[in-house]
Amino acid sequence: MIMVFDLGHSSDSIQSSKLLATCLIGGVVLGVSVLGFYLAFQPPRQLSWRRKKKPIRVYMDGCFDMMHYGHCNALRQARALGDQLVVGVVSDAEITANKGPPVTPLNERMIMVSAVKWVDEVIPDAPYAITEDFMKKLFDEYNIDYIIHGDDPCILPDGTDAYALAKKAGRYKQIKRTEGVSSTDIVGRMLLCVRERSLSDSHNHSSLQRQFSHGHSQKFEDGGSGSGTRISHFLPTSRRIVQFSNGKGPGPDARIVYIDGAFDLFHAGHVEILKLARGLGDFLLVGIHTDQTVSANRGAHRPIMNLHERSLSVLACRYVDEVIIGAPWEVSKDMVSLSSSQSSSALILNSISYRMHGFFFLQLLIKV
Ligand code: CTP
């Protein structure tokens, strides 16, 4: 409120100024009272609508050794059961005591889990089993509502269930384990890669191969060809790809960054390079080379993971916006020229053309 004082005015004008000031103050007081009354007598439903809802926090733990798309799918499903996902990454010592030594150390496993786009928080050095103390810590310190694990049994060396306490507390939920992939399978596939080495080693290798390939026949492991090492025939459904996708294209002025590679056995180095690439622009498009392209360039024994498996691992990474499933080896010239064609069969290339139109396009000269 602004009040003006004129010292040379008559008593009448002073009186009317006083009256005006009184009216203004009275008006403000009345307005505040009406507002207070209105807020105090709001119906409860409208009040709760105004109050922020408490997010449901879920916890999933695991070793996440040689992180693969099965782990990513577990994290995706866990996140869907709440609003925030906290992940406990089991310590090297605990894994060693319960399952044998991990292939990847804790710091790498932390990088991998933190890079998954459905993960909100990560707790390092989590225990293998949910103990009374740790469960209390989860509920009291981390405000966890539910503890989640895949539907495969998780049995401790003493034969008890690692999640028994959480189940008893009524705070346990289960997700569906992804078939067809596990760290053990991946180690098996890697061992198959070395089978063509010296004959003297062949006996040891074949016994290891039998141990890790779960009795799959040699024919199946080779895909019948006798030369390859791809034992997975995993083909994702369109639904799975949609589940892993961001579903968003680049904005109108987006700076699109393109990087291509094999991204076989997706690891902490890949995560670092994708983070770097994403930092150079607003939208990261990743070209995943076909199995044939990888074999031709890296040797017949590669890749270990097939095109679809590699694509899912890359798609789950928080720095990636979109992937091209089966990108050509030579990218820049071909893609730029093809992108200007209007061929209706080249859906991916057309969509690249659309995204490239008028946007900055950069191919990083980095081969992963
Ligand atoms: N998981 C899954 N599907 C897979 C592998 C793991 O859903 N193919 C889930 C597990 O059920 C668990 C989480 O991922 O909830 C972390 O698994 P982890 O502790 O790493 O151990 P494993 O189940 O032994 O996984 P793997 O066999 O691949 O090592």
Q: What is the strand and helix layout of this fold?
A:
Elements: H1 11-40, H2 44-50, E1 57-62, H3 69-80, E2 84-90, H4 92-99, H5 106-114, E3 121-126, H6 132-140, E4 146-150, H7 164-168, E5 172-175, H8 183-193, H9 199-212, H10 218-222, H11 238-244, E6 255-261, H12 268-278, E7 283-289, H13 291-298, H14 307-315, E8 322-327, H15 332-339, H16 347-356, E9 360-363
Parallel strand pairs: 1-2, 1-4, 2-3, 4-5, 6-7, 6-9, 7-8
Helix pairs in contact: 8-9, 15-16
Domain Cytidyltransferase-like: 59-188, 258-336
Organism: Vitis rotundifolia
Pathway: Phospholipid metabolism; phosphatidylethanolamine biosynthesis; phosphatidylethanolamine from ethanolamine: step 2/3; Lipid metabolism
Explain what the structure shows.
The protein contains 16 helices and nine strands. It is flat and about 80 Å long. It has 368 residues and is of the alpha/beta class. Helices cover 44% and strands 14% of the residues. It has helices spanning 11-40, 44-50, 69-80, 92-99, 106-114, 132-140, 164-168, 183-193, 199-212, 218-222, 238-244, 268-278, 291-298, 307-315, 332-339, 347-356, and strands spanning 57-62, 84-90, 121-126, 146-150, 172-175, 255-261, 283-289, 322-327, 360-363. It has a five-stranded parallel beta sheet. The protein has a four-stranded parallel beta sheet with strand order 8-7-6-9. Helix 7 links the parallel strand 4 (146-150) and strand 5 (172-175). The longest helix is centred in the N-terminal third of the chain and has 30 residues, at 11-40. Bound molecules: cytidine-5'-triphosphate. Residues 60, 62-65, 70-71, 74, 149-150, 152, 177-178, 181-184 line the site of cytidine-5'-triphosphate. Cytidine-5'-triphosphate binds next to strand 1, helix 3, strand 4 and helix 8.
